[in-house]
Structures are given as structure tokens and as C-alpha cells.
Amino acid sequence: MDKRGRPTQGAFDVIGVATATPFLGRLLFTLSFTALILILSVTPDQPMQGDSVFVWLVVTTPTLVQKTLHLVVYGALATLWIWTLVARASVWTSQIAAILVAIGFGAIREWCQTCLPGRFGSLYDVVLNGLGAFAGLLVYTTTTRRLAGR
Q1: How large is the average pLDDT for residues 117-126?
Q2: How far apart are the first and last CA of the chain?
Q3: Percent of the chain having pLDDT more than 70?
Q4: Distance of CA 79 to the CA centre of its chain
Q5: Residue from 101, 92, 97, 131 nearest 37 by CA
Q6: DSSP the chain
Q7: Cα 139 from Cα 124, distance rounded (Å)
Q8: How far apart are CA 71 and CA 127, in angstroms?
Q9: pTM of this prediction?
Q10: Which of 49, 90, 94, 106 is least crowded, fewest Cβ atoms below 10 Å from its Cβ?
């Protein structure tokens, strides 16, 4: 870690790109993942004649799998935002900001689903999104500490 608490080369560098990727590259990757979540969240819950295979795949995914994906996807989202922000801010600031972004994005996305035909928002999903974000924070923190201790 450097003086500002940011990982130095080798910390959280699982595949060799974590600390070498410039901020703009990290930001574009993280924004792309965030956009993918947004696209998936506006996919109608009820398939119509002529819909793509993708829509049918989303609609036919069992509820338990969908709820588990909330945890996994928002864990990944929080981890990616920490990874992105830590290039410009301290680890602590990045973690707080990433959690706020992930939970806020999830809550707004669920609220927006209440206005979309064929979709519905759920407070339960907001809670799952938040739990997933905190799980991502835990994974990030555990991983960086282990790798920094090598």
C-alpha cells in the first residue's frame, strides 16, 4: 500500500492487470458492467412473440437463480467500483463510495422497474443488492490483504 492506502503493484493483482490498468480503462470497464446490469433490468418479465432468445432466457431463469444473481452481480459491481476508484482515491474512500454507488444504483433501478410494463420493483431485491455489495466489499478487502501479505 502507498501512503494514501492505495494498493501498490502486486496487491490485488490476481491476473496482472489490476494495478497496471489506467483509471480511464478501469472506468470504462466498470461503466460497461453497470450498463449491462441496466439493460438486463429493463428486459420485460413477460416474453412476447418475436422476442429474442436473450429475453426468453432471462424470463425462464428460475426465481432462486435470479435472486442469487442479485447477490453475485452486485458483489461484482461493488468490487469493480472499488477497483476503479482506488486508482484515484484512498482505499477507505473508494470502498465507501463503491458501496453507496452499488446500493444507490440498485435502489434506483428497482424503483424504475415499478414504472416499466412487464417489470416490478421489489424492496427484497434492494436488500439482496445491498447484501451483494457488502459481500463484494468483503471479498475485495480479504483478497487485497492476503495478496499484500505475500
Answers
A1: 86
A2: 13
A3: 77
A4: 6
A5: 101
A6: --TTS---TTTT-TTS-TTTS-HHHHHHHHHHHHHHHHHHHTS-SS--TT--HHHHHHHTS-HHHHHHHHHHHHHHHHHHHHHHHTTTS-HHHHHHHHHHHHHHHHHHHHHHHTTSTT----HHHHHHHHHHHHHHHHHHHHHHHHHHT-
A7: 22
A8: 9
A9: 0.80
A10: 49
What's the pLDDT score for residue 64? Answer: 93
Structure confidence by residue, pLDDT tens digits, 92-108: 999 999 999 999 999 99
The Cα 134–Cα 52 span in angstroms is 34
Query: What per-residue confidence (pLDDT) applies to 69?
Result: 93
CA 39 to chain centre: 14
- For residue 113, the model assigns a pLDDT of 86
Maximum alpha-carbon separation in the chain: 58
Q: Which three cell numbers stand for residue 20?
A: 497496471
